[in-house]
Amino acid sequence: MSEGPFLVVGLGNPGPGYAGNRHNVGAMVLDELADRAGLKLSAGKGARSRALAGEGRLAGRRVVLARPLTYMNESGGPVRGLLDYHHLPAEELVVVHDELDLPFATVRLKRGGGEGGHNGLRSITRSTGTKDYLRVRVGIGRPPGRQDPADYVLKDFSAVERKELGLLVAEAADAVEELVGTGLEAAQNVVHPRS
């Protein structure tokens, strides 16, 4: 079990127009974690200027919480910059992201695997040179009918989903804390039976 710090990254697109989108649920979870840790996220200098970040503690572990300021498909550059700045291997990276292949309000943890068409994950894999990082997958469900998944993820959560969104964000934040506090296998045993 690593002593950390872990780099915990919440994926989303920048700007108020995207704030409520399904694709931004990772950024929503990151904001919740920053609140819990009492951190004010700010842009750094140089390679760190493309992300809002802050250092603190979660579940007794040192963490760097970060939200890229780039669009989703360019998330890898800021993540690589933060890993390099903090001298962290990709194994210490935790990426919180939306997941089409999980039903809405489901949270799952894993290390590695494919990107499933997720441009943020694809960019991070390309920039880090590995798929072997930790993922907190926040289920947003599949689009209805024949709706294009690319359109679906860039739409706001529905009114029905918004009623449960606060709970989902809190559960995903709990999952991140469990993951950094106890490790992947122990965290999976706690998180996966819940939903």
Description:
- This is Peptidyl-tRNA hydrolase.
- Keywords: Cytoplasm, Hydrolase, RNA-binding, tRNA-binding.
- Monomer.
- It catalyses: an N-acyl-L-alpha-aminoacyl-tRNA + H2O = an N-acyl-L-amino acid + a tRNA + H(+).
- This protein is α/β, with parallel strands linked by helices.
- The chain has one domain: Rossmann fold.
- The protein is built from 6 helices and 7 strands; from the N terminus they run E-H-E-E-E-H-E-E-H-E-H-H-H.
- The longest helix has 24 residues.
- The radius of gyration is 15 Å and the shape is globular.
Task: Characterize this entry briefly.
With 195 residues, this protein is of the alpha/beta class. It has helices at 25-37, 76-85, 119-128, 149-153, 159-182, 184-191; strands spanning 6-10, 42-43, 51-58, 61-68, 93-99, 107-111, 134-139. This is Peptidyl-tRNA hydrolase.
Count of separate DSSP helical elements: 6
Give the strand tally: 7
The quaternary structure here is: single chain
Radius of gyration: 15 Å
Q: Structural class from helices and strands? A: alpha/beta
CATH C-level label: Alpha Beta
Broad shape? globular
EC number: 3.1.1.29
GO biological process, one term: rescue of stalled ribosome
Subunit structure: Monomer.
InterPro entries: Pept_tRNA_hydro (IPR001328), Pept_tRNA_hydro_CS (IPR018171), Pept_tRNA_hydro_sf (IPR036416)
For the structure shown, list the relevant keywords.
RNA-binding, 195 residues, alpha/beta, Rossmann fold, Peptidyl-tRNA hydrolase, seven-stranded mixed sheet, single chain
